[in-house]
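Lecture 7 notes: from sequence to structure.
We start with the chain below.
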Amino acid sequence: QVQLAEPGGGSPETGGSLRLSCAVSGYIIRGACIAWSHQAPVTEREVLLGIYTIDGSTYHNPSVAGRFIISEGGDIVYLQMNGLKPEDSEMYYCARRWRWRGCGADWQGPDGYEDWGQGTQVTVSS
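Predicted C-alpha cells for the same chain:
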C-alpha cells in the first residue's frame, strides 16, 4: 500500500513563502502522477499541481501558476508556495494516481487519484 504523508504546514504571513513536503512510501509504480490539492472548509477539494514521475513534467492550475511550484526529490514531492494570500489558508493534500502517459487531461479530477495523504493545515496571517 502506497502511503503519503504531509508533515509540517505552517502559519506564514501574507506575501511570505512556505514549502510543504509529501513523503511517499511503500510500493511505488513507474508512471505515477503525484499532485497537490487544497480544500477550504465549505468547498470541494481542488487539485492545484501535478508532477509526472517519468519525465518530471508538471501541471499547473491557472489559479496558482506563477506562485506555487511542484518539484520532486527522491521520494519526496514538494510544494513551494510564494506570495501567499489569506485565501490560501486551507488544508493541503498530496495524492497519487497511476498513469502511463503523463498525468493526463483529467489530472485535476480528485476522484481519479488512488492514494491520499492526511493533509496539512496552512494558515496565512493578515
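Points to note: The mean pLDDT is 92. Residues 14 and 85 are 5 Å apart (CA to CA).
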